[in-house]
Amino acid sequence: MKHYSAVIFDWDGTVMDSTHSIVSAIQMACADVSLPVPSAQDAAWVIGLSLESALYRCVPALTAEQLPLFLERYRYHFLGRDTQIKLFDGIPELITTLRSRAVTLGVATGKSRVGLNRVLASTQLHECFDITRCADESFGKPHPGMLLEIMEARALRPEQVLMVGDTTHDIQMALAAGVDCMAVTYGAHDKPTLVKAQPTVMVSSVPEMQAWLLDRV
Fold this sequence. Notes:
It is built from ten helices and six strands, in the order βαααααβαβαβαβαβα. It is of the alpha/beta class.
């Protein structure tokens, strides 16, 4: 059985139950700027990508001139729900257990650095992760840049690393970086979509994730 010495987590939809809030913020921002409102499925598909690049897929009518106002309205709606967004049940306990086993823990996220720092502080997890990378300071998913930078900084070989995420963007990033990937089916992308991307393993809950991980770290 393969064992890992590092686990790198996506954030939204994997660690934090924020998928609905992101989708709603995109949809409400579209309405505010008088743009066609994407379906929940289309808005959810882009979660994990950097916000600016994601918008051109789910809001194709958005112009460069409209972008600043759109981003302002998106942040207004998202931050208005910020205090209501919680970690998935079992995540804090899983992080504590992995740390007790001296596993290197990281985050590779489409969030901005400001956004990630804010939620790390509010969830009191800022000291739990050894290394983090954000889309606005590296390459956005599915480019492997964030994982490659993490591996270089921590002197990790690809076979030592497991990426955990809820979207095909996470899986494609992991494959491009040469690392294994666990896909969780409780986030932004549904199970049939994730299956097509061929993750190393899929789990449907945090307890299932923990059981699988603790046999392999």
